[in-house]
Amino acid sequence: MRIELERRPRQSSLFAIVSPLLALALTVFFGGIMFAMLGKDPVSALFSFFIEPLLEVWSLHELAVKAAPLILIGVGLSVCYRSNNWNIGAEGQFIVGAIVGSILPITFYEWNSPLLLPMMIVMGAIGGAAYGAIPALLKTRFNTNEILTSLMLVYIAQLFLDWLTRGVWKDPAGYNFPQSRSFVSEAVLPEILSSGRAHLGIIFALIAAVAVWFMMRYTLKGFQVVVLGQSERAGRFAGFSSRKMVWFSMMFSGALAGLAGISEVSGSIGHLQPTISPGYGFTAIIVAFLGRLNPLGIIASGFVLALTYLGGEGAQLSIGVSDKVTRVFQGLLLFFVLSCDTLILYKVRIVFDRARNAATKGA
Question: Pick from 175, 197, 203, 208: most CB atoms within 10 A?
Answer without folding.
Answer: 208
